[in-house]
Design brief:
With 417 residues, the chain is mainly alpha-helical. It is built from 17 helices and 4 strands.
């Protein structure tokens, strides 16, 4: 086995081992606090709910371990069995080196890998979530969601792949700069059209009815100078009893969205505090900052792909034949292999990315406290959401530091007070 193949194998196994170890730490920590409600949460959550949250956390942990092992085994098999170069050679032999044919290779491999994960997605929805009373998805809805996702990928993703490959032939060695620009433009376009075109394919959005709550939320938007034309309610209960709120889009397409489950769980002041938190993300320019990081990530990714496409050792490590030049067919293996290996690298960046995200959450909470003139509404909302969603109230610090994009309940309460 070539030396880089060994390095890649070690990195994949190291990630899987790290995931299992962190899960083991977290589950042991949860079990150690499982016998009674910890002092810090007495009066916040009753014993029955606490025990259910412990059981839910442990069940998700066991399922996550199984999924991690499966993902690692599939990735190892796909990368080192020789199946990818075999499929690539058969496809090019039968359909030639046309842009649409080799883009089809990338698309088909991506769809095949996503199909392998469907049994886990089904079990998570209809067994795990069902057991704890969260699932409200009908099988027909679940299937339609997958079909719609496939069609959107085919209509948008497949042509984008073909365009990137065409750019390789049009622009030569500098193709990756043009590809970066195209992908960034595509991402920005999606941010604009998704609220109006794509999201309604999956959920129904209705204007928040006239009344005290609507007046209160629009007054908050006006008071905080948050430009929005609409506050809409999304039928999240059609799939789950979990709840959320968010704003999406830019300019005239911007809208505030509240899950119907959230509206059923919180009082008006609590809903206002949640909306103030979401507005805080906008006012603190968190969305722009995250978009900037995403753009930088696209630039680095294509630069890395362009460099790897010129390295014989990279191709030979996974059984591909390396051809000279910048023809699209010569670069396709690098695109595919980078996509398969990127998650293994990004995993180790998780603590830094999530640490940055947690800082944003603290800033948005502080904005909400200032906008509301008090912290109690936000504290009550966070407590209710933790209770209703059976959140893990006692995560291991290393586990939460590695995985959590939001601070824990106690951390947020301390900061708010």
């Amino acid at each position: 086995m070539p030396s880089f193949a060994i390095i890649a194998l070690v990195l994949i196994l190291a990630r899987a081992i790290a995931e299992l170890w962190l899960s083991w730490l977290n589950q042991n920590h949860v079990r150690a606090n499982a016998n009674e409600v910890p002092t810090a949460f007495r009066g916040i959550v009753d014993e029955t709910t606490y025990r259910r949250s412990v059981a839910y956390t442990l069940a998700k942990g066991r399922f996550g371990n199984l999924a991690s092992v499966f993902d690692a085994l599939v990735l190892i098999a796909v990368l080192f069995s020789g199946v990818l170069p075999w499929i690539f050679e058969r496809l090019t032999a039968n359909f030639g080196m046309s842009i649409w044919a080799i883009a089809g290779f990338l698309f088909v491999v991506g769809i095949a890998l996503s199909i392998l994960g469907l049994p886990f997605a089904w079990y998570a929805q209809f067994k795990l979530e069902e057991r704890f009373g969260f699932n409200t998805t009908a099988m027909r809805t679940w299937i339609l969601d997958r079909v719609k996702g496939f069609l959107i990928a085919a209509l948008l993703g497949y042509p984008l792949l073909a365009l990137i490959l065409k750019l390789i032939e049009w622009t030569g060695a500098n193709w990756w700069l043009w590809a970066t620009a195209v992908v960034i433009a595509f991402q920005l376009l999606l941010l604009l059209i998704a609220p109006a075109v794509i999201m309604p394919l999956f959920n129904r959005f209705t204007p928040l009815p006239d009344g005290v709550l609507r007046d209160r939320l629009f007054a908050l938007a006006q008071r905080t100078n948050f430009p929005t034309r609409s506050i809409e309610v999304m039928d999240g209960s059609k799939r789950s009893r979990h709840s959320n709120a968010f704003f999406t889009g830019f300019g005239r397409f911007r809208k505030i969205v509240l899950f119907d489950t959230l509206m059923a769980q919180l009082t008006e002041p609590e809903l206002e505090s949640v909306l103030a938190h979401e507005i805080g993300h906008y006012k603190k320019r968190h969305v722009v900052k995250l978009l900037g990081v995403s753009i930088a990530g696209v630039f680095v990714a294509f630069a890395a792909i362009a460099w790897l496409a010129r390295q014989q050792w990279f191709y030979h490590a996974f059984g591909f034949e390396h051809r000279t030049g910048f023809a699209a067919a010569n670069t396709v293996p690098a695109l595919l292999l980078f996509g398969l290996l990127a998650g293994t690298i990004i995993f180790w960046l998780g603590p830094f990315i999530n640490g940055w995200s947690r800082r944003f959450e603290y800033e948005a909470d502080a904005f909400a406290r200032a906008a509301m003139g008090e912290a109690q509404s936000m504290v009550h909302a966070l407590r209710k959401l933790s209770e209703k969603n059976l959140s893990n109230l006692t995560p291991h610090p290393l586990y939460s530091g590695f995985y959590y994009s939001h601070p824990t309940l106690l951390e947020r309460e301390r900061a708010l007070r």
